[in-house]
Amino acid sequence: GIQVEQSPPDLILQEGANSTLRCNFSDSVNNLQWFHQNPWGQLINLFYIPSGTKQNGRLSATTVATERYSLLYISSSQTTDSGVYFCAVETNTNAGKSTFGDGTTLTVKP
Amino acid sequence: DTEVTQTPKHLVMGMTNKKSLKCEQHMGHRAMYWYKQKAKKPPELMFVYSYEKLSINESVPSRFSPECPNSSLLNLHLHALQPEDSALYLCASSQAPGAGKSSYEQYFGPGTRLTVT
């Protein structure tokens, strides 16, 4: 099956700093989502981005499908940004079957 | 409304108990999913229902029995679980493949934290 690798596994920032999270995948995808899992376990949709670039406030994401990676940018980080960030992908041959990366654990210190 | 609800929030059960987890969505989605997430691990897909029919079963043990009674509801029936089944169980929904697209954005519920004693 498809392999999904996220980096870095852990990231510690001071409030106000910027960061870039990366998701590499081993096969062509038709679905890529970024999620933020808060300390209570809720997975919050950040972006649905199988290709291209999107922005939502302080967050933006870019997926370069031909090179099989996606980047999540967080600017001016806040303590509430802390949590685990997952990317999840689906391939054409396995529609409906999402594979998650291991996540990046972000800690933003005040 | 982009909300998926799950009940109960927490569940403690013995190995001989029978219990059910419930999931509901009112977004008109026709695909629903169960995931299992162990501590400090990513969610793992268990089952997918598409148009109320089971379309994917990721070789889940038979002590987990899914049911989709209608397009808004998804249940997970639990029987004779083991302590290693303790985990966060997440439900999700999305539009079902079709109409020129094979995949859509998934929306997750808050999860049920299950402890098996």
Description:
The complex is a heterodimer of chains A (110) and B (117). Chain A is an all-beta fold and 110 residues long. Chain A is 0% helix and 56% strand. Chain A is built from no helices and eleven strands. In chain A, strands 2, 4, 5, 9, 10 and 11 form a six-stranded mixed sheet that branches. A five-stranded antiparallel sheet of chain A has the order 1-3-8-7-6, with no helix packed on it. In chain A, β9 (83-90) and β10 (99-100) form a beta hairpin. Chain A starts with a strand and ends with a strand. In chain A, 39% of the residues are buried. By secondary structure, chain B is mostly beta strands. In chain B, strands 2, 4, 5, 6, 9, 10 and 11 form a seven-stranded mixed sheet that branches. Chain B has a four-stranded antiparallel sheet with strand order 1-3-8-7, with no helix packed on it. Helices cover 0% and strands 55% of the residues of chain B. Classes of the chains: A mainly beta (110), B mainly beta (117). The interface between A and B is medium-sized, with 24 and 27 residues.
